[in-house]
Amino acid sequence: MVGGAALKGYLFGSLMVVLALFFQATTQFFLSNPAHKPEIVLVIVVWASTRLGFNEGLLFSFSAGLLTDSMSGAPTGLFAFLYCVAFLVCGYLDATTDLETYGARFLVAFLVCILEGLSIIGSRYLAGPFSLGAGVGLSILGKGFFTGIVAVVLMPLLDRLWVERPRLSGLH
Amino acid sequence: MPRSIRDIALIVVLLGLCLVLIFSYGKKSQTGITESVVYRFFRPLEQAVSTLKTSVGDVWRNYVYLVGVKKENRELKEELRQLRREKGELLAREAENIRLKKLLDVKTRLEHPSVVAQIIGEDASGWFRTFFIDKGTDDGVFAGMPVTATEGLVGRISRSGANMAQVLLITDSALAVDCRIARTRDRGILRGALEGGCALRHVNPKVQLKEGDEVITSGLGGVFPSGFPVGKISAVRMGEQGLFLEALVTPSVNFSALDKVLVILSTLGGFDVQTWSEERR
Questions:
Q1: Which residues lie closer than 8 Å to A5 by C-beta, 6 or more apart?
Q2: ipTM (interface predicted TM)
């Protein structure tokens, strides 16, 4: 994918991330406990690793991470780093295995979310120790589970929008 | 340039940039260009959803929730009578308190300039305990300022844009607050516990802590004013090393029901905290 197509892919992903962040920051608290809030942006990054090219996908993951950093309590660069790593890992998995089934999508989103959670909790623990009870593990597992569920529902929807985007935007 | 080398170079540059951003984060208190642009874009959208949420809540409270209001009215009248009695007692205690403070010549500021802010959004990732308010540097709100509610301490401003700011809650492990146990006057450091609520650490093991003991801010550290309610102790246990007590604290503020907060417009060092030894100098 080169030139205009790459830019369109980048812009499409960015638009989805902005919508996801807006949803996560405003209305999602009606639906879920903050501790188990699904990571919709991470699902979009996982989706991008299977659909976008390497350059625009990596740049998109970096931008999505910076946006998430701004809209969360994370130090600037943390989510950008984690999403870039998630993109690379999922891109590698996509190249070596089949990530198109529902089970694979759930499993990848679940595992990447767990790894992300462990990285964040680990970095925060190093910054200032706090009690790590069983609740923390359950919270990460719960978040991973819901993120997996969202991936099963959202990724086909993103595929559909991705295919239909020339018709939706009026550009063929 | 071969594609593989170009790809590796892109990975190294982007991940390196992320690390530089992470490690330079602690040195700045104001928002960067990214945050400013993002806040400017998201603020009206979040404000709109927040207003909609308030309107729906008002309709619910004013019309749907009126079922059984007579009974509630009776109970409230009884509560009002009781509160009036308590108010009389408190006024007498306050007068005594003022007299004692004058006697001790302790300089404390009873009132701080503040601004009311509406909560317009919450942490997008869910890994951190933060929310966004509709006031920023244009309203005099800067990073480091304490945030309170009528029930007690809420947190501290962590980032501030022109017309939107981020509040780090006391339930987040990144925020440490120097506190006292109101009954015993012993000190401890309060931090958010990821399993929920907060944990009061580094408490003298000789202190007899009880469930229900009230925890208040000590005022030491110069960030938070003293005497603000923080929460109540819900469980007590010995710390990991066995040197200090650790207590789980349930915050006074119900964060999920919070819609407006008070930002105290005083930054680090703005509170008049003088220890006994300083007074003697």
A1: none
A2: 0.82
